[in-house]
Design goal:
9-stranded mixed sheet; Rossmann fold; 22% helix
Length: 231
């Protein structure tokens, strides 16, 4: 399976996302924001960073870059798309996911190993989990506060489209502790924490077993492979 990772001006975690794809035994394909060619990939990752310097709004300019027209078409056809941090911001700006992301509640950049609860294990990027699993994923953002109207929040809750929720600490003031959401079809998922930074023992979050031993992030990418193989 071939999973494309899009690089934008200001992307920081594109190489990490490519590495995570490789660890999941898939082939990473580097895609460029200025192209109109997805190179026939089976799934797409929009990585974290500060695309276009976060000018205007985080993810706003990237959401209308040339390749995003292809990403939107692919998502609407059912291709799995994962937006991580800045990529999540792009997905909301492109209206592939509801809501939006605003400046953290306390106005400061947050970096921490964050506990999440898996709320929906039926998406293309979460099927290797079970609903209710608590996982630890690194978080690093300055504009990670998820917002939406009360009606949209109620709809997300009622339709089971909250994919992840913060546990213990709400690090950025996200409404209803929402850390990630999915679209109706379940092929598009966005979240603020960074699963690509929790794929290899010795380099992930601390766990009760050992320092830097957390690898919960790898299951995001193996989930995509399972979803693709099931088609």
């Amino acid at each position: 399976m071939r999973i494309g990772v899009v690089t934008f001006p200001g992307s920081l975690d594109d190489r990490d996302a490519q590495r995570a794809v490789r660890f999941a035994d898939a082939e990473p394909v580097a895609l460029w924001h200025g192209d109109h060619d997805l190179a026939g990939v089976d799934a797409i990752v929009l990585p974290g960073g500060f695309s276009y310097g976060d000018y205007l709004r985080a993810g706003a300019i990237a959401s209308v870059s040339p390749i995003m027209a292809e990403v939107i078409d692919a998502a609407n056809r059912g291709t799995p798309v994962l937006g991580i941090c800045n990529g999540f911001q792009m997905l909301t700006e492109a209206h592939l996911l509801p809501g939006g992301l605003i400046r953290n509640e306390r106005g400061t950049f947050v970096r921490r190993d964050q506990t999440l609860r898996v709320e929906n294990a039926d998406t293309a990027w979460t099927n290797d989990f079970s609903a209710g699993d608590e996982i630890v994923i690194p978080l690093k953002n300055g504009e990670g506060g998820f917002i939406a109207s009360d009606d949209d929040l109620d709809r997300l809750e009622g339709e089971g489209r909250v994919a992840f929720r913060y546990v213990g600490v709400n690090p950025n003031g996200s409404l209803r502790d929402i850390a990630g959401v999915t679209n109706e079809r379940g092929n598009v998922v966005g979240l603020m924490p960074h699963p690509e930074h929790a794929i290899e023992p010795g380099f992930g979050p601390d766990t009760d077993a050992a320092m830097r031993s957390g690898v919960d992030g790898l299951r995001f990418f193996t989930s995509a492979l399972r979803a693709l193989q099931a088609v």
